[in-house]
Amino acid sequence: MKISIATKMTIFTCALVLATLLGQLAFNAFLSGPLLIEQKKSTVNRLFDTLPRNYSDDPDFIYRLTEKAEGDNIDILIFSDNGLVYSSRNIEIPVIRRRFLFIGPFDRAAFPEDARAKVARRGQGGETLILLNGRFDYGGEARYTIIETPVESIETGVRLLSWANLRISAVVLLLGIACALVFSRRFSKPIREIGAVAQNVANLRFDTRADENLSTVELSELSASINAMAENLKRMIADLKDKNERLQSDIDRQLQLDRMRREFVANVSHEFKTPLCLLQLYSENLKDNIDSADKDFYCDTIIDEVNRLDAMAKSLLDIASLENGLSGMRTEALDFSGFCKGLLARMDPLFDGIELDANLQEGLFVEGDGHYLEQAVRNYLVNAVSHTAAGGRVSVSLRRSGGRAFFSVFNEGKPIAGEDVSRVWESFYKTDRARARAEESHAGLGLYIVKTIVNAHGGTYGLINNADGVVFWFMLPLSEREEEKQEE
Questions:
Q1: What value does the CA radius of gyration of the chain take, rounded to a whole number of Å?
Q2: Domains in the chain: how many in total?
Q3: Residue 442 domain boundaries
Q4: What's 357's domain CATH number?
Q5: Which of 130, 371, 389, 456 would disulfide-bridge 326, Cβ 3.0–4.6 Å?
Q6: Burial (0-12, 13-18, 19+ Cβ within 10 Å), 476
Q7: Strand (E) or helix (H) holding 475
Q8: Which whole number is the average pLDDT over 318-338?
Q9: Final residue before a domain boundary, out of 124, 139, 157
């Protein structure tokens, strides 16, 4: 069974206090009595050893010598062969004889000069005493000394002390238990908090931090380590998620490229199939020299289809070049405003029967390759014209938007369906899904080429569906020349 730190600390503290109290009680019960008796015997011995060095038969002088001992309940009697010299209780000789019958006559053998205190009992069933019978010389005469103190007083003191200690021990034990509970809870609280933070980290929740401002150095260092680990783990997981997202994005992109590559091959095969079939049919008719054949028409058709295949092949080569990073692209500071104005002038015949509205802001410069940017702008314009009915309107706009040049082409017509919005930028994708013979720009390559060129120039692109038509747009970063001009 697992036990918490607080419980262990409480049990340990209580056991330590209890062991201390039991040891004290055992000492009081079994050792304090004998120890106090030995101390009393030592006191009696020291008193007897002191008397000969400072002795005088003057009772007042003797009292001053023995005053402290008498205050400790020690009785002193000093007498000579001629009678009583001093008694702490003024006891007469007859009483002394009755009291100390076990001594017998005052013979010198009963009072040795090297006497030591001992425990003796007075008569049969009498009280127990600490007794010293000794003798020393004073002026050539013997002085007999009896020093005694009752053991009962010592035992009474021991019992009172033991009883008092028992009560004190009970109080101390209760206080020890209370203090142990309070201390263990206060000590274990930060540990529990650190454990909660560690559990959150284990569950990949990094919104909490352990308190590092604790009074205990070890716990503060542990909190700092937990916080550092959480921060590092959070950063590592964030990096791992970012890498996983990029990897997933790369995988999705690769899957999309594979799908687009398969569709591209299928679409190229389909787009080449019709003109090749016509070339084969008309060539066979010319070879067979059919009388009813219009040879001029056949030759013109063959020439048109060959030109169409040549244009399509060139477009495919351009796409291949674009997808390989536009290695031949040469960028320069290009006056995009003048560039668009000139291109619109050259393409004016394209807008025959269509209302053209151009709003081009002057003086916008971009960093780009004019050849590819002309292709992107031209594809937007051709796409707009091809989807605008006769008498409809096409609006071309160029303006500054933040630090970028915003170019857009609007054409009146039917909005693009929601499921087609994200796919019109794919190669050979046509919203009507028709595979009719068409010019190269109608084969589904135009918007794909625009996307590739704009991406190569660090720009963005998109379309906006309006109620009366569609806006195709792209934005390109302004050149340093443009930014310097703005600063001036």
A1: 60
A2: 2
A3: 329-487
A4: 3.30.565.10
A5: 456
A6: buried
A7: strand 469-477
A8: 74
A9: 157
